[in-house]
């Protein structure tokens, strides 16, 4: 999002919440009181992050945050001890909400690390601020449950994706994320799809040939 000229950080935060976030919340729980909007504004912060910067690492649930991506791309990953390599569980884009619901609700240690893949701006809410927000407005827990359902839906899609051929994995994933390969390392996408860089390159070449024929 490009800031308006002479717009303060506080004004930008309010504009983003009212124009982008509030309509999504209200589509789930209905119109909100001004008191909720005021507390959401007090609980939220806008932060800029550099490429490769960690947003949070695997540790206590109390260190966890909710992130709303205004611009940029991020990944969540964890280390698989059996293979001694990182497993990228998801690549996140603009308007995505990164939030470990299980850790938050069950007060369990987080196992995933969140890292930027390109520079970007995010809205953040820390653990205690979010806890206070939900305690004050308990019907908003419906939004948290929707985030959990969305995560589970993506997990099911991802598991089905990994059972497909390399060519089909690359084709289906890039059809849903057509500009991703131009913005981040293809090694990262290959790792997320569970294929070698060489196999990904071959499948990506076939994907581009098919796309070019469609556009011709």
TrEMBL record:
InterPro entries: cNMP-bd_dom_sf (IPR018490), RmlC-like_jellyroll (IPR014710). It comes from the Bacteria. This is Crp/Fnr family transcriptional regulator. The lineage of its organism: Bacteria, Pseudomonadati, Bacteroidota, Sphingobacteriia, Sphingobacteriales.
């Amino acid at each position: 999002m490009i800031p308006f000229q002479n717009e303060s950080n506080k004004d930008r935060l309010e504009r983003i919440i009212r124009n982008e976030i509030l309509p999504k919340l209200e589509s789930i729980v209905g119109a909100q009181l001004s008191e909720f909007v005021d507390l959401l504004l007090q609980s939220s912060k806008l932060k800029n992050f550099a490429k490769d910067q960690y947003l949070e690492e695997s540790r206590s649930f109390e260190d966890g945050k909710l992130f709303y991506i205004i611009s940029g791309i991020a990944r969540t990953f964890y280390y698989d001890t059996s293979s001694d390599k990182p497993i990228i569980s998801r690549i996140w884009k603009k308007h995505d909400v990164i939030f470990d619901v299980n850790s938050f609700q069950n007060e369990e240690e987080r196992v995933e690390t969140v890292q930027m893949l390109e520079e970007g701006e995010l809205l953040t809410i820390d653990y205690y601020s979010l806890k206070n927000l939900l305690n004050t407005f308990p019907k908003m827990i419906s939004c948290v449950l929707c985030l959990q359902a969305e995560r589970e839906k993506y997990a099911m899609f991802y598991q089905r994706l990994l059972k497909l051929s390399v060519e089909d994995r690359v084709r289906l994933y890039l059809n849903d994320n057509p500009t991703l390969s131009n913005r981040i390392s293809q090694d990262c996408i290959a790792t997320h799809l569970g294929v070698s860089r060489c196999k990904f390159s071959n499948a990506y070449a076939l994907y581009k040939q098919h796309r070019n024929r469609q556009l011709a």
